[in-house]
Amino acid sequence: MKLWKILAALAVLYVGVVVAFEALLGWYQPQGGNTVVITTTDDAGQTRDRVVSRLDSDGRIYVAANHWPRAWYRQVLEHPAVQVTIDGERADYSAVPVTPEEHERLQAEHPHSLGFRVLTGFPPRRFVRLDPQ
Questions:
Q1: CATH label of the domain that carries residue 67
Q2: Tens of pLDDT along 19-69?
Q3: What is the pTM of this model?
Q4: By the 8 A CB rule, do 69 and 47 touch?
Q5: Which end of the chain is less enclosed by CB atoms within 10 A, N or C?
Q6: What is the DSSP string of 74-125?
């Protein structure tokens, strides 16, 4: 019985670490050399900005939902007309779900470290291709 309590406490602690890490990323939205700002539109017509990692592959630009919070990803599937700010330049794009082949290629070309996956709670990774308009 004591072992189960210890395991339960560790599980709760781990979930707390993942939630805290994801919340801090969402709050601060760190930007760097490999990030872009994607502006999505929700069902009410309101726009939202989100910092996401830019992935370059095969001459195209991709972004990935790498975390459990992924409202922006659901929004681009429903409303694929997005605006993307890259290096201060804002342009219109169409967000296109990737093919299974593209998904496998992107996973292989841009893997996440085990440490990152642990901190984020092992979320499934989803990609979209950004096609210029």
A1: 2.30.110.10
A2: 877 777 656 666 666 889 999 998 898 999 988 889 999 999 999 988 777
A3: 0.79
A4: no
A5: N
A6: HHHHH--EEEEEETTEEEEEEEEEPPHHHHHHHHHHSPPPHHHHHHHT-PPP
**Structural domain harbouring 128:** 2-132
Type and span of the H or E element at 27? helix 2-28
User: Coil, strand, or helix at residue 69?
Assistant: coil
Q: Within 10 A of 103 (CB to CB), how many other CB atoms are there?
A: 16
Cα separation, 124 vs 107, in Å, equals 11
* Res 93 pLDDT > 70: yes
What per-residue string of b and e applies to 32-45 under the rule 16 or more CB within 10 Å gives b? eeebbbbbbbeeee
**Cβ neighbours of residue 98 closer than 8 Å, sequence gap 6 or more:** 62, 106, 127, 128, 129
Place of tokens 């992924």: 70
| The total number of structural domains that make up the chain | 1
